Amino acid sequence: xxxVPEGTEKYKQGEDKFTINYYTPIDKNHSFRNEYNxxxxxxxxxxxxxxLLFNPTTDEQIRDALERKLxxxxxxxxxxxxxxxxxxxxVQLMALKLITNDTIRNKDVYSYWILTEYGKNLAIELKxxxx
Length: 131
Fold this sequence. Notes:
By secondary structure, this protein is of the alpha+beta class.
């Protein structure tokens, strides 16, 4: 269903902004670092990872995509999102009912994230070419 899930209207979303705090470690232990922050809309944040989430995705894969696509991390730029902000992003996207988490049990219990039906519809809506 593509209608906005009930109860989500009270949360920041869409073009509302969120500031991601991140850093570049200067030493191996990350005790010295350069800190930065950048503002993104919730749509930009969601779209940077939505494609991944059509399939079961781990925390690490999500974090990696955010750092690469939003912050421009590459071989020359090493950026790490602060844990608090990373958790806030997951919580917000969950509160907006765009993503959900689940577990797979094979040898170990393995926890993953995936788009909800509404999340899939919104990703397509935001990404598909309009004429």
